[in-house]
Amino acid sequence: MKVLLVEDDPSMRAALRRTLDRRGLDVEACGDGREALARWLAAPPDVLVLDLTLPGLDGLEVLLHARRAGLDTPVLLLTARGTVGDRVLGLNAGADDYLPKPFDLDELEARVRALGRRRAEPREREPAADLRVGTLRLDRTTGAAYHGDEVLELTPREAALLQALMARPGHAVTKERLFELVFPGEQAVQYEAVEVVVYRLRKKLAGTGATLMTLRGLGYLIKPA
């Protein structure tokens, strides 16, 4: 089984690679998001073990780009983040499983092998239901947003914001919650950065049948226009 391990911490990356190699897996490893995406595109592995916090492109961006490119490799997310929202966002972006740090090496191996078996013996699964607001549709499998048959050109942050709002149409989502989902782990970024993403997304939603509203003191919501 070929495994691509993407982990930015050099010591952890070396330890995990050594452990999985000893357990009979063929492991390649890298620590940069852009390099990971390039390797994935060039030679898809049987399983990808992906950390969320990476230089270059973060893990979520790597995952979104790959799924939009049609790569269907099973992905196991590694994350030290404690919020459920990050895990849900990763799963909705196309991850197959997640494992929070710190984790047991036996469990890591078991989950990797389970994903490898799932790929070798594919089963028919129910597709994730699309999210809809008005005539706007979000494909939860790929993360792509559509107005009719037209694909909206969204950045990963805009897509993350849109998905968080469309998951609860007509209900306000706080700025703090959106910040966690749109800027995961980026402690140097101010909460006001969410407003910039909202502004850009609102312009792209013009004419799509969906309205992004600001509710002062409550947050933001999306509803049919």
Descriptive keywords:
Rossmann fold; alpha/beta; Arc Repressor Mutant, subunit A; 8 helices; elongated; 225 residues; 4-stranded antiparallel sheet
Summarize the helices and strands and which ones pair or pack:
Blueprint: E1 2-6, H1 10-22, E2 26-30, H2 33-42, E3 47-51, H3 59-68, E4 75-79, H4 84-92, E5 97-100, H5 105-120, E6 131-133, E7 136-138, E8 145-147, E9 150-151, H6 156-166, H7 175-182, H8 193-204, E10 210-215, E11 219-224
Parallel strand pairs: 1-2, 1-3, 3-4, 4-5
Antiparallel strand pairs: 6-7, 7-8, 8-9, 10-11
Could you explain how this protein is built, in words?
By secondary structure, the protein is α/β, with parallel strands linked by helices. It has two domains: 2-120, Response regulator (Rossmann fold), CATH 3.40.50; 131-224, Winged helix-like DNA-binding domain superfamily/Winged helix DNA-binding domain (Arc Repressor Mutant, subunit A, Orthogonal Bundle). It is 40% helix and 21% strand. The protein contains eight helices and eleven strands. It has helices spanning 10-22, 33-42, 59-68, 84-92, 105-120, 156-166, 175-182, 193-204, and strands at 2-6, 26-30, 47-51, 75-79, 97-100, 131-133, 136-138, 145-147, 150-151, 210-215, 219-224. It has a five-stranded parallel beta sheet, with helices on both faces. Helix 3 links the parallel strand 3 and strand 4 (75-79). Helix 2 (33-42) runs parallel beside helix 3 and helix 6 crosses helix 8 (193-204). The chain starts with a strand and ends with a strand.
